[in-house]
Amino acid sequence: MSVDKSDYSIAAAPSFIPSTRTGRMLAVFGPGLVVMLADTDVGSVITAGQSGVQWGYRLLLLQLALVPVLFMVQELTVRLGIFTGRGHGELIREHFGAFWAWVSVSNLGIAVIGALLTEFAGIAGVGEMYGVPRGVSLFLAAAALLSTVMTGSYRRVERVAIALGLFEFAFFVVAIAAHPLMADIARGAAAIPYANPDYLYLAAANIGAVIMPWMIFYQQSAIADKKLSPQHFNAARWDTAVGAVVTQLVMAAVLIACAATIGAKNPNASLSTVGAMSEALTPFLGLSMGRLVFGLGVMGAGLVAAIVASLALAWGVGEVAGYRHSLELHPLRARWFYGVYALCVVAGAVLVWAWPDLVSLNVGVQVMNALLLPLVLGFLIALAARALPEKRRLKGAYLWLMIAVCSLTTALGVFGGLQGAGLFGK
Questions:
Q1: In the structure, how many helices (H) and strands (E) does the chain have?
Q2: Which of 14, 157, 254, 412 has the most CB atoms within 10 Å of its CB?
Q3: What burial letters (b/e) apply to 110-134, b meaning 16+ CB within 10 Å?
Q4: Average confidence (pLDDT) per 10 residues, the chain, 426 residues
């Protein structure tokens, strides 16, 4: 796909991007992969695990069906970030006014708080599996997150986030070790209890675990902060596509592993914590394997998601409030930006330390994300149809396809969440 330079006044390419096509693609990779690895966070892992335990493979097709939905949604953030050079909150303020910008950021703040509670609770759970006191593991995690970001370098943060996220590949080891039978997977995936409210509730949680407000804010702002221009558009889309496939395969791996082991032997098990999931898998995978593999996967998922969610809020508030908001600025030159990030990290760690039982909110947080989708996706589509240059604007058949896909996803998430919670007739 060629890029018309009239789309946007192209700034000079960042110095770290090579001139060769392959080198340019690899250098552009990052924002999409990071946000997708963060998408498979602790809450998502527990939601996928609980899905496999309660419903076997019946929610597996949903994981795969969400791949194109996830790509379509996040690809719009790529367009907006590249062809406007601005973050999500800044564009909402410019096109819809300060009131709606603050409403959107408030929505983001709620989602970030929920995410941080699940991430830090998961990290603390991994520590407790190895006898590390909750306070110690939370302190070490918060210190690592603060030191990673307080460098004044977007590239360094991106590299660390990707390295942490790669630990999630450990979940593929778990799925293989569970020895699932393909015949059982095919048979279970096809038997979908559409009318069961408990099934719909978990389906809503899985939808909410895939599309989250902080993902949209993060990827668009990261692309703007990385100073990607229209000539990098195709590579940035590939970055997003690869990330979408990887994150949903990780979710599918967790679901398959839990369905093939715990779900087959103890379908009434409740996996509200990482420790409970690891202990339940121990008889099937062995004590050392269960702890090590799940520990690595959850630590990677929790840390990368905590970075992404906290930065998303710091960027979002900065874009709406107007303070300096860039990882390329020294902390002393962007005090508010780094201050909001630090506040998110410290507050999340302190809350989980003070109220250990918050981990039980994991599935509920994902359902909450589903209930926030109408506002999140509504603004995203409106900006893509209004803020982009004419040639890159969302319009015609693709506009209506996006509206249909997002409306259906939103309706399923909201309906399933309300019905499962008993707020919408069963």
A1: 20, 0
A2: 254
A3: ebbbbbbbbbbbbbbbbbbbeeeeb
A4: 39 49 68 86 82 87 91 93 90 92 90 86 84 90 89 78 83 82 84 82 79 88 86 89 92 88 72 67 68 81 89 90 81 87 91 69 67 86 90 90 87 65 46
Cβ-in-10-Å burial (0-12, 13-18, 19+) of 400 comes to: exposed
DSSP secondary structure of 290-334: HHHHHHHHHHHHHHHHHHHHHHHHHHHHHHHH-----TTS-TTTS
What does the block give as tokens for 178? 């569970």
Q: Which two tokens stand for residue 259?
A: 């369905």
Asked if 336 and 318 count as a contact pair (C-beta separation under 8 A), the reply is yes
Q: H or E segment at 32?
A: helix 31-39
Distance CA 387, CA 219 (A): 17
Dist. CA 218–CA 303, nearest whole Å: 15
Maximum Cα–Cα distance for the chain, whole Å?
A: 61
List, in sequence order, every beta strand (DSSP E) within 61-158. none
pTM: 0.82
Residues 348, 294, 365, 238, Cα dihedral to 10°: 100
Distance in angstroms (rounded) separating the CA atoms of residues 348 and 121: 9
Domains and CATH numbers, the chain: 29-420 (1.20.1740.10)
Token representation of residue 421: 């919670």
